[in-house]
Each structure stands twice: as C-alpha cells, then as structure tokens.
Amino acid sequence: MPSSQTPPAGATALDPTAVRPDIADARIVRVMPAGVRSTLEGLRADGFTMLLDLGAVDYLEREPARFDVVYHLLRLPDRPAGVDEIGTPERVRVLCGVPSDAVTVPTVTDLWASADWAEREVFDLFGIRFEGHPDLRRIQMPDDWEGHPLRKDYPLRGVARERTPRPSFALKSNVAAGTPAAGRTAAGLQKQIAEVRRLADAHAAADLAATGDGKQP
Amino acid sequence: MAVANSGADFLLTTVDSVARWAQSSSVWPLTMGLACCAIEMMTATAPEYDIARFGSEVFRASPRQADLMIVSGRVARKMGPIVKRLYDQMADPKWVISMGACASSGGVFDNYAIVQGVDTIIPVDVYVPGCPPTPDGLLYAVNLIQQQIKRGGRGGILARA
Amino acid sequence: MSVSGGPQAVALDVIERSEGRMVLSMGPQHPSTHGVLQVITEIQGETVTKASPEIGYLHTGIEKSAENLFWSQASTVIERMDYLSPLTNALCYYLAVEKLLGIDATIPPRAQAVRVLLAELSRIASHCVWLGTGGIDLGALTGFFYCFDLRERILDLFEASGGARMHPNYIRVGGLAQDLPHGFLAKLDGVIEMYEPRMRDVRRLLQKNPILQDRMIDVGIISAEEAVGWGLTGPCLRAAGIGYDVRRAFPYSGYENYAFDVITRTESDAYARFLVRLDEMDEAMRIVRQVRKVLDEPGPVQSPDTKFSPPPKETIALSMEALIHHFKLVSESFRVPPGDVYQAVEGPRGELGYYVVSNGDNRPWRVRTRPPSMYNLQVLKKIAIGELIADMVVMIGSLDPVFGEVDR
Q1: pTM for the predicted model, two decimal places
Q2: Is there a contact between A157 and B110 if contact means CB atoms under 8 Å apart?
Q3: Are the Cβ atoms of B34 and C35 closer than 8 angstroms?
Q4: What residue spans define the domains of chain C?
C-alpha cells in the first residue's frame, strides 16, 4: 500500500453507505450489476429523465463489492416547463456494488446520452468496464497510461514518483510537531535529512531488487 | 548570444542595441492559457493592468508569430508534449515565463497528473510565484524579460539560437 | 472517412483531404476554445459532419488530492476546479461536509447571507468572463474591457474579505473564515452602483448587435428533450425552456429568503443562452441588493460548535479549552462521521454537485464532483453536426465550459 494511502488510525467504516446519517438528499437504491439495468430502465420509464451524474467510489476492503458505481437521477419534465411546474424534483441515487474490475456493468448510454463521457471516466480512473458502451477508452489520462489513478491502491504521486524523496515537512508523521522547541537544531535537521535520504535509498534499492521489469504495484 | 568583440563592432552593436530596444518593446505573447492563471493573464490585458502599454499589444495564437510563451496554469501530463511542441514551433528568439506555482513547480498538485514544473520540459526565463499571481506580478515578469533582452542573453540581430 | 483509433495519432499528424472532406484538429491550444479543449472535427467543405471533443488536457487529479488532505484543506484544491467562481465550489463542498457533520442547522444567518452574497458575486464575475471572451471570439473587444473592469471591482471585494482575488478560501466549515472587514460594505455599495450603468453599456454594445445576432441566432439548437437526456443544467437547460434552478428547487444557505426570477427562454440556440446569462446577471445583482440590506446587522459568522470551526481568535489566549480546540483543528483536523451525501448548488454553469463520502476519518474518502461543464460540453458532439466550422467557436462559447471542472 503506497505511503500516501495508508489506512487511518481510529474508528473507520468499511462501508459508509451502510451507516450514513439520516440526510434526506435522495432516495437510495442499492443493486448489483445483474440488476442495475432493469432498475435503471424502470426509473427511466418512471420519469427520471435526467442522469445527473455517474461516478464511482473505491471502498478497497469492503465485501462483497469493492467498488460502487453511483448513478444520480433527477425527475424532470422533458418539455418546456416553468419553474413553478418543476417545483422540487425527486432525486434518486442508485448504488451499484461492483466486486472487482473483472465484473462488467451494463452501459446506460442508450437510456441517457449523458452517460457517455461519465462511463469513460469511470473506466479510465477506476478500471470498471461498461458493456455495450460505443467507445470505451480513456478520457482524462493519456491513451498509453497504465493503471487506474483513482483506485485506492494507486499512489497519489504516481508510480514513477512514489519512491522519490519528499521534504521532511511533507511526511505525514509531522516530525517537527513532535520535537520540542529546544531540540530543533541545525544538527537535528541534518539528521532528519540524512534519515530521509537513507530511507529513499533503501526503497530505491528494494525496488530495483524486487521488480526488475517495472510491473505495477 | 550577441557579443561586442572590439571597437570594429561599433556599428553592429549600435544596430544591435536598437534591435534589442525594439524587441523588448514589442514582446508578443503566445496564448498559452491553461487554467486559473490564464484568467489573471487575461486580466493583465484588461484596462486595470493593461499589458499593452509594455508593448504586448496583441497575444498571438500561432506560435510562429509569438515571442513569449507565458505558461499560465497547471501543466497536465497529457498537455506536456503539446507545450513542448508549441515551444519548438516558436521562432527564435523566444522567451518563457512560468506563471504561477503550478507551472513553476507543480504548485499545490504534487500528484500523478501534473508536471512538476514546466522547466522539466522547456527552458524558463522568469518564474512568477503566486496561486494565481496578481496581474501585477505578471507585468513585473514581463518587465524582467524586457530587462533580460536589453542586457544580453537572447535577442538582438547578432543572436544565435 | 471516419476517425478511429487513438485521436491524437489521427489528428495531430494527419490532415486528410478527400473530395472536400477534411479532418481538422481544433486545439488543444486555440484562442477560442476557452481552455484546453481539442475538438477533432470532420468537415465537408465548411460544414461539420462530426465533432469529437477530446478532454483531459487539464486533468489535475484534484479528487485524488482531496483524499489526501484534511477536510478543511481539501477545499483549497477543490476551489481550483471551476476557477471562474471558486467560492461556489467551496460553498457546495462545505454544505456537504456540514450535512455529514450534522451542523448544517447551526450556521448563523450572517454567515449564510455572506455565502449567498459571494456566490452571486461569483456568478456575476464568471458571467463577465464568459461575456467578455465570448465577445472576443466574435471580434467584439470593447465588451471584454467593460466586463473585465466590472470583474475587477468584484475581485476587489474577494480580496478584501478573503485575502485573494481568486481562490480566497474564505468559506470554511461552519461559516466563514472571519467576518467582513471594515469598509467592505462601502465597497460593495460601489459595485452595486456601478453595475447597472455598466451593464447598460454592455447590452447596448452587444445585445442588439446585428453581427452578434447573425452569428448566434439559430446556431447550436437543442431540443428540451435532448437537453434533459444529455444532462444539461444551468443556462443551457433554461434556454431550452426548462426552469430548473437548484436555488429554487433545492434551496440552500438561505436562498428561500430572497426574491429572484428564474430566467427561461424557448429558442434554445446560442443567442437564447446568451440572453439567459445576461438576465441571470441582473437577477444575481437583485439578490446582492437584498443581501446587502441584511448585512447591516452584525452577528457571528461561524457555527458555535467549536469542535469543527475554530474558536474566536480572542478567546485562544484566555481559554484553555479554546486553545486545545484550535490546536486539534489545525494539527489533525476534525473527523466526519461515516456516511455519504450529495449536495448541489446552482453554479454559473449549472448544477454543481459533490458526492462526498466519509469513512469516519479526518480526510475525505471520496469527493466525486458532478461537473456541470463536462455534461454541458458533451452535447457539442450533437449540436455541432450540420453547423459551419466558424460556428464551432460560437457554440463552445455558448456552452461556457471551464476546463478545470471538465477535467478536474
């Protein structure tokens, strides 16, 4: 696990969607990929004419589904209608649990044209494939990019730079805060720098020894 | 670089200094607006700051016609090759201002997607700190470029690439 | 002949001509694409037969960066998405966080009023840029100068209150970073006074301008049904006749207290979007005037819950508890209870939404943006077909994309 994504200390929830507070922001529907198509077709027929957004979340160690593909729908009239007629439209949030990137999710580009780029972006940044999408290729990253950056096991600084040294003040352990004021001397700083250099060299040597073929983590 | 060798070059150096005066007084930037800094760059052309009074009367869209590339904004990894290509397409003599923290060093974005400083791709003459820098900062950078041209460095008719 | 395979390979190096057909790569560096957009157009003579916008040239990894920063630090990168109205991004993000924290009911009215003020001023400032650059695209330079001058006065206000012209990071969890400074209201009065004559001049220059009308009327038409299917929101949707405005449908931050009209038109061409945005600027100023009256009364600008918003500065030297709260907030930030929430605001470009997921930690687990510009821009694929290549610039301008938001 890259250093920038180490799990936090303290109580954390593996599935935030299961323990969410009582906020009335949308009606929430949870499905699995097998049932997502029928659910969304039903909602579309029920008047949810706008797919506001299609995104994904990586929950890493959650069972049974590591990823969530999240559909935000809005019930709007699809002909000219004044603000009073629209009132407070209903929102629906469909959460589709995707166990891994081996499972494909059916596309909804035939139901809502807005899904086109959104599904490409989910594929690009998470690696989830959408079956039936007319043109599933990367959209944000360059075409020859390897890896899916928004996954939790993808390092923040990218694979190439993950092991390069960072200035001591940027280390998440917040070294300076733990040092008493009297102890912050030039010699102490030199020691910190030397320690960081030693760690970086050790990591570089370990990398070289472990993966001579530059495989992804 | 233009060098005055001896008194025999008097005529040429005079012409050269005239040429440098002309070049520094009419630095035309390339429209290399990438992100938030681009908006402040546009504001530098607006009446409050008016970059035109320093000679940058027009911003040229074509790199063939521009002298100065103001890299204004974060350079994404996908955009990097294009910035390089545009720099290569510019005719000599040319200068580069790296405007803002992101162009100078990657800024707030120390991550997979941003080039950590455009000077890893192209040579930079002046760096402008800020996120975004005020248009005043950009104007000062243009002034520094003008001083660089007049002092020596690239520019003049005796310039070599 | 059609575009296939990697678009860069095709477009950047190859221009194919065949029977008057051409594949033209417009961008990513182009004076009129409003940012780093590449549109690979196939044209037959002058008519566009296919348009493929390629985005990602400003992909910044903002959402990934936000996952590695504290909740209150994440807004610094989130503000840099829609960089024409940064405070709107921060407002939406913090509204979401406040909902997860359960303190959304404790935001004091003065803080809410200032948030509305800043959001509407951001809307006007953003539309100033759209209007100015839209005019430049068509050769109308004077409008640019007038609009940017008005924008300068608004940026003055952002600098006075938050410390920076763009990206002031002034809206914080629980309210504002600090109260409005002395002299702010006088400056605001100056802006309010300047607005009307300035916009009258701008309208006189542009609105009935025959060249502008010629270039914008009947260009880039989209039907209401298609607009909804393509996920358009904001002025693009309202110009198609659908009066959906998040400020009216799902009021936030006290918008229900202010009177304003939701502007709609039915022609749904570039000119209609142009008129909708112009009128929206006027409605925004109408809200600003109403908020101005509220701001005369003093009041707190931060939620009293000091677990999340820092205690008043003057108490830190006197109260141990205040000192500890402040120290904890700065060194490790607060923790947000686990959960997910979707919060939307009406940004200048449409419905800006954040789907924020917390796993109980002091950093966001996921901040998914609902980027209005991306969905608005996507429709270019559809509306460009059959138009002239010169209209491409008009259509992109009328959709008003901001690439910090499209690419994030």
Answers
A1: 0.87
A2: yes
A3: yes
A4: 1-59+382-408, 62-370
